[in-house]
Amino acid sequence: MKITAADVIAIMREVGVDEEIIKKIKNDVPLMDQGLDSIDLPAMAAAMETKFKIDLSEIDAVKVKTIDDCVKFVNDRLQ
Predict the structure, then answer these.
(1) CA quadruple 53, 3, 7, 59: dihedral positive or negative?
(2) How far is CA 21 from CA 24, 49, 53, in A?
């Protein structure tokens, strides 16, 4: 199983990220620079852990800054 940017965006919707932010999201720009806040990111991390059955430590979460980073991180753990 491999995930895509669309899967990460679906998680953003699930955790309640504002739709106006999601519409403008760029895959290679840090999420915090695009309007996500310190509540959105931990919620996304928890949702990814649950949905994809992976472990995303706080240290790993700091390294995952963009949607592209999220996709790579999850896909690396699913192999």
Answers:
(1) positive
(2) 5, 22, 26
Query: pLDDT digit of tens for each residue in the chain (79 aa)?
Result: 899 999 999 999 999 999 999 999 999 999 999 999 989 999 999 999 999 999 888 778 788 999 999 999 999 999 8
One-letter amino acid at 24 equals: K
Q: How far apart are CA 1 and CA 13, in angstroms?
A: 21
Q: How many domains does the chain divide into?
A: 1
CA atoms within 13 A on the CB side of 70: 28
| pTM of the predicted protein model | 0.91
CATH code of 44's domain: 1.10.1200.10
